[in-house]
Specification:
heterodimer, A: mainly beta, 10 strands, 0% helix, 46% strand, B: mainly beta, six-stranded mixed sheet, five-stranded antiparallel sheet, 11 strands
Chain lengths: 116, 112
Amino acid sequence: GAGVSQSPSNKVTEKGKDVELRCDPISGHTALYWYRQSLGQGLEFLIYFQGNSAPDKSGLPSDRFSAERTGGSVSTLTIQRTQQEDSAVYLCASSPSGAVNTGELFFGEGSRLTVL
Amino acid sequence: TQLLEQSPQFLSIQEGENLTVYCNSSSVFSSLQWYRQEPGEGPVLLVTVVTGGEVKKLKRLTFQFGDARKDSSLHITAAQPGDTGLYLCAGGPYNQGGKLIFGQGTELSVKP
């Protein structure tokens, strides 16, 4: 499809394991965002990539969280040594360059992470 | 840290009633957006307001950006069950590139 694609849609893991979440943005979108949403809550900003600029990592909650974006397209969010408080829906969004400052984000359906 | 405070957090009304959701901050934003999210899906953009005092209408929904660019409101006229969902405001802080801050959301339930 033409939308933002995220995988896996659901991930159950044991405490202490590492997980990788993938985001495939809309083709041609230069900006890519990761957010975290706990049950029934708003979105917590994690990290933002814009073109070839250094990413804004100011929202990453700890050094167990990291993200990369390869070739200006696909992004992977990695959580090391997962904790139960990491359980949430991780949402990825992309934006065309012209909309970066007007907040027009296109979201994927999210990856639901459950840490047992 | 720039925050967006939404109120109310929960709203349960009958079909046909009117409602207003508020989004407030002590900070100035370059733009404010309203998103709607349904269970199991990502948020979907409803509107963007960029000019202080701006009012935009989308069918039965009216959005306003405060004159000082610190707050916004969403008014729904004659709510319908299809309006049920999580409404999120979001803002682009000045001088922070494309970073977008979200409010905690308003869970709206419209009963037939």
